[in-house]
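Much of our argument rests on the idea that a fold can be written as discrete symbols. This step matters because it turns folding into a mapping between discrete strings. The record that follows shows the chain in one-letter code together with its fold in token form.
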Amino acid sequence: MLCIGCATNTVFCNSALDTLITGLIYQAAVQVRIIKDTMANLEEFAEEKLGAEHETLTSFERENRDTLKDKLVYGKISQCVYRYGMIKKFVLDIEDAYSIAIFLQFGISVLLICVQCFQLTLVEPLSYRFLYIIITLITTTSEVFMYCYAGSLIYNETLFFNSDLYITNWINLDLKSKRALITLMEYGKRPFVIRAGKLFDLSLDTFAFIMRRSYSLLAIMQNYKY
């Protein structure tokens, strides 16, 4: 029972550490999604803003409502350009700060998964030791999956970023706003990719690769067993 308690404590400790990094990546992905939503509702935003400030507008501004609307739209696109640049810097900072740590986590996880699976073949089923190994195995696998899923999420959010911008009613934008939109699309040409140790992309493909390598190493250990 003590082993199960220790395993449970390990689960919570590791989860607290791992969710910090993945939480930062999720935050970046959500910010990209906010930009997409903002760009898809530019005209609605401008109309809502003008409606809310209708009483405070001067007679000249009311007569030039379309011009004022164009200014609001341009301002919003400019904010999106700035925000996307900040998100990109934020993602690069995450990679610079945690790339080595994630790489070491991946390497250790492969060894742990192999050892834990090998131990399952040696212990008595449904014993305390067996349950302890199962809990730690699930924890180790979940840690790797969390990183890979978060990396895949931010990649997918930015992969079709430019295509998603076409939802914007860009045909009716003024020249200044169209230029700002082109600038935003230039930013979105390359999807965000976070790498572990500058070698492995955080993606579900990498997770599958790690699982395959773990199984291969387990097979080698099984051969030595016999």
Remarks:
- The first strand starts at residue 195 and ends at 196.
- Residues 2-225 form one domain.
- The chain has one domain: 2-225.
